[in-house]
């Protein structure tokens, strides 16, 4: 997706965003700081996944939490049909898992299961699987399918899904940006919801959608998160 955006003129600029920049004596957002350097922009969209909660230090936003999940990627070739599977699986100790299996067009199969509420590390490189979680998924997959039991494992991994207090995403103008000139918005907290719940504001210059009513996803429905509650480690 990034390559397609670059073809259309977008630029990928790696770095750590350290704040948003407002025009002096106004609330108008005019850019961001990336590693302390000012980068101008006519619009700023907070879309940092579970790390979007850090933006509460710059703008009055609801909290976005991280729900940790674990997954394995298998090399299955054409041996698995192209159909997703959602099921319940009972382990020998009586615990119930709700795995999801997604065959991909590149010949791999993605299997995810086992959520936890471990604290979100500030550095994404610090995201690692919980002890024993991957082993449990491997044992489950071997029990479910002889193909998965013999398939090469390409990745054993963990991630954090961004979720909000009510389970709905935040897609709208930031509460502190009522004027069109402010151009600050959010697109985060989606968890696993369909990607068609989006704003077309980037193409028609309006913070609205031409096809989906985004009113239920406005940040103003939830209380603003107090950044003083952040505990960074």
Q: Can you describe this structure?
A:
With 233 residues, the chain is mainly β. About 6% of the residues have low confidence. The protein has a five-stranded antiparallel beta sheet with strand order 6-9-10-5-11, with helices on one face. A three-stranded antiparallel beta sheet has the order 1-2-3, with no helix packed on it. A three-stranded mixed beta sheet has the order 4-13-12, with no helix packed on it. It has two domains: 123 residues, FAD/NAD(P)-binding domain, CATH 3.50.50; 98 residues. A hairpin with a 4-residue loop joins strand 9 and strand 10. It contains four helices and 13 strands.
Question: Key terms for this structure?
Answer:
mainly beta; 2 domains; five-stranded antiparallel β-sheet; single chain; FAD/NAD(P)-binding domain; three-stranded antiparallel β-sheet
């Amino acid at each position: 997706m990034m390559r397609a955006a670059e073809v259309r003129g977008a630029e990928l600029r790696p770095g750590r965003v350290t704040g948003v920049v407002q025009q002096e004596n106004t609330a108008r957002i005019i850019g961001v700081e990336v590693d302390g350097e000012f980068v101008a922009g006519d619009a700023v969209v907070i879309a940092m996944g579970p790390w979007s909660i850090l933006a509460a230090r710059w703008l009055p936003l609801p909290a976005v939490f991280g729900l940790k999940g674990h997954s394995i990627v298998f090399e299955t070739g054409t041996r698995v049909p192209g159909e997703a599977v959602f099921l319940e699986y009972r382990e020998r100790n009586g615990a119930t898992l709700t795995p999801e299996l997604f065959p991909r067009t590149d010949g791999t199969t993605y299997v995810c299961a086992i959520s936890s509420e471990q604290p979100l590390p500030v550095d994404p490189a610090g995201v690692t699987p919980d002890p024993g979680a991957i082993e449990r998924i491997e044992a489950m997959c071997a029990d479910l399918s002889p193909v998965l039991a013999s398939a090469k494992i390409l990745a054993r991994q963990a991630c954090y899904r961004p979720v909000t207090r009510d389970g709905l995403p935040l897609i709208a103008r930031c509460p502190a940006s009522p004027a069109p000139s402010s151009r600050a918005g959010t697109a985060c907290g989606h968890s696993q919801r369909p990607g068609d719940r989006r704003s077309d504001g980037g193409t028609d210059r309006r913070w609205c959608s031409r096809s989906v009513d985004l009113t239920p996803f406005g940040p103003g429905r939830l209380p603003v998160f107090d950044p003083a509650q952040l505990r960074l480690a």
